[in-house]
């Protein structure tokens, strides 16, 4: 079995290398999968992709023509794959859960960094500047956090917030009754939350869930956290919210146009995306580069589940983590 990996980084090679054997061989490509690069998969039965690869209908047809049988996502979200188009052509499998803790903990790390100005303090003390001017934060204890999406990651984040003594409100299209969460409407959540954290998938329903209108419904000074998918937020509307001082802070691990920049080193270059550049320039915006998943535990789980998914499809014809043919 030959697997072509797209958009690979050194940590991908590291976590997958122990699965290489006389039966399984890997071809690692740094480039992302798209219609111009799909031909690199020639000779491989399996293509393994990540969040910013593009598996549109056109790309799927190309892979099918090349004889690819399985498209294995080494991630949970699959908004970058035309799953319907793949039906009856290529099996699509994903890793539904690898470490909800990794993402939820990163979300809290971003929140604490932002509201306690750790990012500013770190740079100051590195330069032997021990002034505290401008570093005043606020307590999380007693604040209200609104969690949108109470699936695997959202639930862990809810527990973490409860540990800080916060009041938790939630909105989910399919609320769960087993975790004692106070569900409210989206508008109620917007109006009552000091902090809003996004943990729902990107769908037609949720695209630009945070937009100019929803921001107007939020409390002045609200802190917005997004470790889910970039397009949940209309970035230009967020920028306006920051400029008007209505939004107190934003922590973004994802960004709608991230596929052109995230995971690459653009230091020393001029970044073309004015919205991203302006957001990054704000003192109350923290951007990480789709890093929330990146823990040793998550990488190990991603590798083992991906290999198991592929083996199940190729050897048994079925896999519980298949996204189509269900
Ligand atoms: P999950 O499927 O366990 O939970 C998603 C929740 O969102 C479910 O409870 C679902 O009912 C809810 N939901 C669906 N449609 C909704 C809507 N229209 N409005 C409100 N809620 C809705 O997914 P999980 O594992 O918790 O992941 C959440 C998201 O986190 C993923 O979709 C993915 O985009 C993102 N993610 C980001 C990572 C990163 O490194 N930054 C890593 C892994 C996932």
Detailed description of the structure:
With 326 residues, the chain is α/β, with parallel strands linked by helices. The protein folds into two domains: 126 residues, NAD(P)-binding Rossmann-like Domain (Rossmann fold); 188 residues, Rossmann fold (3-Layer(aba) Sandwich), CATH 3.40.50.720. The protein is built from eleven helices and twelve strands. It has a seven-stranded parallel beta sheet, with helices on both faces. The chain has a five-stranded parallel beta sheet with strand order 2-1-3-4-5, covered by helices on one side. Helix 1 links the parallel strand 1 and strand 2. Helix 1 crosses helix 11. 40% of the residues are buried. The mean pLDDT is 96.
Low-confidence stretches: none
Amino- and carboxy-terminal Cα gap: 24 Å
Multimeric state: single chain
Strand fraction equals 15-25%
- Could you give a short account of the major beta sheet? 7 strands, parallel
- How would the global form be characterised? globular
The CATH superfamily of the largest domain is: NAD(P)-binding Rossmann-like Domain
């Amino acid at each position: 079995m030959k697997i072509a990996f797209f958009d690979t980084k050194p940590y991908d090679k590291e976590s997958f290398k122990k699965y290489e054997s006389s039966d399984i061989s890997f071809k690692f490509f740094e480039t992302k999968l798209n219609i111009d690069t799909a031909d690199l998969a020639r000779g491989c039965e399996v293509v393994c992709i990540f969040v910013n690869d593009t598996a549109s209908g056109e790309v799927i047809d190309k892979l099918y023509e090349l004889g690819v049988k399985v498209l294995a996502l080494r991630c949970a979200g699959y908004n970058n794959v035309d799953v319907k188009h793949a039906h009856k052509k290529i099996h699509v499998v994903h890793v539904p859960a690898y470490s909800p803790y990794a993402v939820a903990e990163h979300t809290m790390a971003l929140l604490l960094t932002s509201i306690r100005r750790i990012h500013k303090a770190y740079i100051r003390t590195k330069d032997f500047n021990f002034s505290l001017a401008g570093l005043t934060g606020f307590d999380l204890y007693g604040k209200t956090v609104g969690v949108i999406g109470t699936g695997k990651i959202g639930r862990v984040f809810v527990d973490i917030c409860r540990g800080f003594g916060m009041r938790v409100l939630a909105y989910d299209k399919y609320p769960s009754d087993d975790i004692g969460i106070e569900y409210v409407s989206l508008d109620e959540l917007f109006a009552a939350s000091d902090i809003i954290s996004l943990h729902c998938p990107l769908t037609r329903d949720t695209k630009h869930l945070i937009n100019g209108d929803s921001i107007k419904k939020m409390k002045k000074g609200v802190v917005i956290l997004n470790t889910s998918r970039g397009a949940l937020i209309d970035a230009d509307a967020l920028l306006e919210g920051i400029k008007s001082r209505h939004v107190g802070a934003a922590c973004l691990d994802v960004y709608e146009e991230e596929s052109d920049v995230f995971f690459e080193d653009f230091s020393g270059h001029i970044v073309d995306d004015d919205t991203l550049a302006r957001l990054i320039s704000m003192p109350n915006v923290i951007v990480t580069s789709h890093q929330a998943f990146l823990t040793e535990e998550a990488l190990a789980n991603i590798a083992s589940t991906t290999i198991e998914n592929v083996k199940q499809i190729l050897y048994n014809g079925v896999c519980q983590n298949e996204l189509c043919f269900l």
